[in-house]
Amino acid sequence: MRPLRNPVIQSTLAWILAQWMGFCFATIRWTREGREDAEAVWKQGGGVLVVFWHSRIALGPAAWAPHATPAKAMVSLSPDGEFFARALAHRGFPAVRGSSANKDKADRAKGGAKALREGLRQLKVGGLAITPDGPRGPSRQMAEGLPVLAKLSGAPALLIGISCKPAVRLNSWDRALLPLPFGRGAVVYDLVRYPEGAEMDAVVREWTDRLTAAEARADALTGLERI
What we know:
alpha/beta; seven-stranded mixed sheet
């Protein structure tokens, strides 16, 4: 049995990761660009999509201020997803569970439909964090789930680039980034809305480029090498 499939180990490691994240976030010197976009959304309240690439999932809570719109995170149905769901919940992001990556077609349809329903329900009242290249990639390639949610809900999307240095890169498909304390951090916000009458493919391409650009800008601010 893989360690993360053991509920006791999973719960313990998720708590440790959450505490480590909190310690790092508190000691990192943060630079924030485009904060006015985020503040306008938070002041208005209501639904907002919170978007960052999957490799920065451990940094996601650092982009959300204490006074921000309450948010939940969409996390896959996999055992590893359960681990991250527990860790994010400790950092103030309860999970909406669902995935379109299950091998079984029926489970995939059920999981995706459930995630869509719960996501739309959440977007009526608050924020929904989503990694549009997760849970299995390819890295930095956006699936249609994000723009579909934006189109159906009418909610704005905050595309967020997050970076920190020093950091640890995991040997995972997305080379996920884990923060280290006492370094530099950057958060770059870019506010978008689904254009009325726009073609889905065009929106996917534009939002992919803008999210990648926000992340690249955050990396440039911290001096983190891009891979």
